[in-house]
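BUG-1081 | component: ligand-complex export | severity: low

The export step for adenosine-5'-triphosphate jobs runs without errors, but we want the raw record kept on the ticket for reference. Input record follows.
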Amino acid sequence: MLTYNLRLAWMSLRKHPVLSLLMIGAIGLGIGVCMTTLTVYTLMSNNPIPHKSSALYAVQLDSWDPNDPYTESGRPPPELSYRDAQALMESTIPKRQAAMFKSGFALQDAEAKQPPFTVLARVTYGDFFGLFEVPFLFGGGWDRSADRNAQQIVVLSKEINDKVFGGANSVGKNIRLDDREYRVVGVMDHWHPSPKFYDPNNGDFDDPEEVYVPFGLGTALELTSYGNTNAWKPEKINSFQDFLNSEYIWIQFWAELPDAKTKDDYQAYIDQYVLEQKKLGRFPRPLNNRLSDVMKWMDEREVVTDDSRVLVGLSFLFLAVCLLNIVGLLLAKFLGKSAEIALRRAVGATRWQIVQKHLVEVGLIGLLGGALGLLLAFGGLRGVKALYGGYDHLVQLDGRLLLIAVGLALLSSLAAGLYPAWRAVQLAPAGLLKTQ
Amino acid sequence: MKKFFLEAGPVLRALTRSRAGAVLIALQCAITLAILTNAIFIIQDRVRQMARPSGVDSENVFSMRVKPYKPGFNLANDIDRDMAAIRAMPGIVDAGVINSLPLSEGGSSGRIYQSPDIKPGDGQFTANYYTDDHSLGSLGLKLVEGRGFLPEEVKRGDRTADRGEASIILSQTLAKKMFPGGGPVAGKTLYTDDGTAQHVVGVVERLQAPWISFGELEQAMLLSQYRLEPAYLVYVIRSQPGQRNALMPQVEKKLQELDPDRIIRSPRTQSEIESDTYASYRAMAVILGTVIVLIVAVTSLGIIGLASFNVNVRRKQIGTRRALGAQKGDIIRYFLVESWLITTGGALVGVGLSFALSWWMVNTFDLPPLDWRYVPVGVLFLWVLGQIAVLAPARRAAELPPALATRSA
Amino acid sequence: MLQMTHISKVFRTELVQTHALRDFSLNVAEGEFVAVTGPSGSGKTTFLNIAGLLETFDTGSYRLDGQDVSHLDDAARSRLRNEKIGFIFQGFNLLPDLSVFDNVDVPLRYRGMSGGERRRRIDKALEQVGLASRAKHLPSQLSGGQQQRVAIARALAGTPRILFADEPTGNLDSLMARQVLEMLEEINAAGTTIVMVTHDPELARRAHRNIHVMDGQVTDFTAFAAAQTERESLAA
Ligand SMILES: Nc1ncnc2c1ncn2[C@@H]1O[C@H](COP(=O)(O)OP(=O)(O)OP(=O)(O)O)[C@@H](O)[C@H]1O
Ligand SMILES: [Mg+2]
């Protein structure tokens, strides 16, 4: 029956090519626009580390102004001061934890033969790699002693290792960062969490950093943070040590808390820490420390832009217009075929069989429209890429989105076809016997 | 025109009998109106924001960063040497250093107060540009009062260097906020966070902050002091009109020649910086514009499609009318009136829908509420669209021969 | 085969009520060939619609092939139409986009037959009406008489127990009409009951029995008797 209906549907589409193209075009446009905006939206709201996102927590302490909360909604600041980050690193509760900030170097080969180039660096603890499950091609990270002793060692991204060492195993070899020698201890495999959730500074869809060095170097070399440095009260800063001791916030802090109990323990721990600091005259605000897992964190950081949401909303309204259009055209078409419907009913087709026949036709239109919509979405995404710049990893259609597109096309076309098909079978079969 | 409305009664009665198609088109018109008004409103809002001048002579200004990588460099000496060399190049108007550029999405901000006795909630937000005595010339800012910085006012040094007492130049917007009474501003004293005095020496017509999301985009000031830290410094250079693109690589090359032990990075024109910063605004406008074009096309085709269908099913009826003496104009008018009634019905619902959509967006997102004037304009557009779309099928109907009446359909 | 007792049917529109059938009773035995005549508007088509399960009736009872059909739902009525009833219309009612073959195929498709069985039946039916060579043609490529023969093949392919024809020759010239009638007689001779509405007294005379409908009622039994004797004399 399905093949029969499909054949009839195909003939019917061919019979009225303009009408068919109009309907396919309308579905295609609706799906194309929806898929374009939806793709951007779903990739923005993507979970960058799915199997672990609920165990990773961004740590926030409310060290802010007693008279003026960090955000109007009363959220604590997203980053920590250096002294608090140092203190929290002493805890043994998290399975893994890392304080970190972004910086940069001029990178050169060990013999200084090639001209140097700038690289972005993450200054962090050795736990970083385990915390975020960074894949390694060669070697690995470092341990706590490297952080404490500010060892001049480095982990390279795959891209940098390709560029400097032609992709060879460079573990044990040296490179120069800002004219100092560093020994390579690990080379990462391709790693591109999107969104780049672990650092609230700069672009949410930026590439990860290109080199990784121990946190101890940050103070030893007085490295500059490339992110924001914020303060709520004036402080006299006359030296780097003054800066480290200040209330300035500029450090990101992540902890891995595998279960609810660990999380509760850790929450109690940071609250206790802040209560003790209050005795020293710090933390003037009421207790307001937060642990946000990855998805909650990205929600608070508003990684998904309002524009993207508005566009999804409007594009579904647009799809609705396209569908209304199709409902009208289908209604005209089906009612125009009342003679055929009456005849089929007379020779024994049930109402349901007639509805089926029409839904198959509509479904075919939906599939063709869906295919057209996918093509348009490809074009649309290219356009979005060109318009925004820097969304390169963001705008690509994957299998899941392909399925969504086809499903959406089928579903919406069937929804559009339901009313016309129902109207079509309401025609009494008896009408046929009247001479026309 | 009178005839047009006289016809409305019978057409309306006919419409209520075969309503499904008409209701569908009317609904389509309603949603179209809602999208149209809101999208155009957002577009014009974005265009208006993009059109605000940054105050910088964007067409002729470019900038680059310098990263020395051999320990032991003397940044102060390097800057003086580099600046002298750049300023001496033909075609260069001026060059200076600054910590960040308007609309570059990175920089420094703080509050500024009228008195050193700071109370919570006092003062005004401002973007802080730490710079030298060439800032007005290198950025191409327009002075409206006072003067630029004098060489002897400029202070520089390590991390404490940008926190002392200095001279400042305010944007006009900031000046008006700090001194609402008016009168001369140069010579007055203001205070930064820790109560440090800052002496106003001038006011520029316009100077935007580095971030478009900054609440007070037009509030900014220049300070005659900067920190000698490569990560916090940008060389900003202004060329004679039309020479920017040629000079940018030359300056880059010159700087590299002056000292090969450093990296010259991110050479960019100010227009590029501003355009990149507004990329998402432009993208929103372009995408919404595309959606508008598409939706108008789809809706017009819908109206054309329904009218064509109606012409087809009414062939015999139209032929009979013609046989009974109706003129071509009467037939065309019938369809025009029908379309007008449908679009009007759609518009009635659409007006409500427009405000509902706006209400949703205002409440869910940080968008301004719809300006009501867009709605009547949208309705007018819908009417015109309906009339134009139906014209071709109506003409075709008018051309049907009266003889159709005698033939069986 | 067909037993209608005291059937009535009223059409209600906003303005008027039309008693299309009132107290309409009729029996048709298996294998009979019945012609229905009557003036325009007398209710012939309404009778045929009800008999063919295309329309419901208001009161009375109707048994078709021994089965009471008054309370069947739409799906059951559709199935009965498909399996037991064949229709031939004045306007042929072929689907213009389908070939002759596919037109005959339409009722079989709703019976869930295998492809081979359908093909066999279609070929046989087309052969019966003498159009086997035209299977691939579109209806528009055939003459009116040929089109009506396709319609007959379509009705035959499903091997119905009873065939309803509403002025099957109304759109044909007398030669074609005669051909079609002969075909119906053959079908009837093979065992299929036929009920035919016609305005043509000559055709009506060739049926076993004539029913005259007037004002929604079966009236004229004399006509029936006359037709009966005439037929006998013709046969003699
Ligand atoms: N769907 C309907 N709605 C209202 N009235 C109807 C309907 N169908 C038939 N009628 C009325 O019922 C009566 C019988 O109609 P019917 O079609 O059965 O006549 P007929 O005997 O077949 O006439 P003709 O020989 O002209 O075909 C007529 O008065 C007609 O107006
Ligand atoms: Mg009739």
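Assignee comment: Attached the raw record above. The pocket of magnesium ion (ligand 2) is lined by residues C 44-45 (CB under 6 Å).
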